Amino acid sequence: MSVQKFIVRSLLKLPDGILIRMSGGKPLAIDGRILDARTQFLAVQGAKQPSITTLDPAAARAGTAAGLSLLDDAPRQGVSVRALEVPGPAGPLEARLYTPKEAQGPLPGLVFFHFGGCVIGDLDTCHTFCTMIADIAGCAVLNVAYRLAPEHKFPAAIDDALAAYRWADTHAADLGMIAGKIGVGGDSAGGYLSAVIAQEEKRAGRPGPALQLLIYPVTDWDWKGGSMQSCAHVYPLTAEIMDWFGGLYLNNEAERKDLRVSPMKSPDLAGLAPAIVITAGFDPLRDQGAAYADKLKAAGVSVTYRCEDSLAHAFTAMTGVVPLAKSACEKIAADVGAALR
Prior knowledge:
By secondary structure, the chain is α/β, with parallel strands linked by helices.
């Protein structure tokens, strides 16, 4: 363990009261919610650093990866991890397959995509969380890296994610997955990609995924007001960063209306895969995630919705230092297991 990691983790073991005194003197409250003390401490420290909007994408990726490495828990020991490549429309995509070590026979599967606004992030971003899902849900998880903007703008990420899901569906036996029991999922941008996959399969007249796991997803790149305003300056995702992501990912502003960019705008959600939608209380994306869950329910889709009121965006990568984040991720993994079984 590095010295920096040791210091961060030691500080975050301090009592809530001390952490709050070190983070402005009073708990942060927004929209009737109170932020977890450890997350508030991280938010205050994060605000002291340059925003990723001041960096070029390569530097933003490196800086984010370094920061997240201080916060994530250790991977689950009961899971085997295998590196592989998935055929993509523009070349091979790096991927990892996670399987419970004690598993026998084919398992339900989940194709997972990491967060990062389609600009930052990689397989390590959600590595620990993928081991948690495989371990607790008792399923095989395929973690797929997709092309990032601005080098590869819309629709590159969508094309890659859709190709990866379809490949997994076709090669279920090779992956130790049960054909017809394969879901898609992800957090933030990964949740967005998963929502679009479910819609695209319906539009193509193909059987959809068995599940869509949407963790604080982007569902409308046009969204204004509500939590996008009240949580505009909350660590680690701000409204400014969302605008930065959009500017790098999209080719033009008109694309925000495209259903493959803003799945919320689809007029017909009937018949889509059952959904697990999880939002965070201190997140600009909170309200659009909740609205998408409501729209799915209104269309007759089976939905499990939960807002982790005291947590912020990207909590799936904070399981090593924020106990509430770890327990939230364990609940999500249990939800996935129940849904796929």
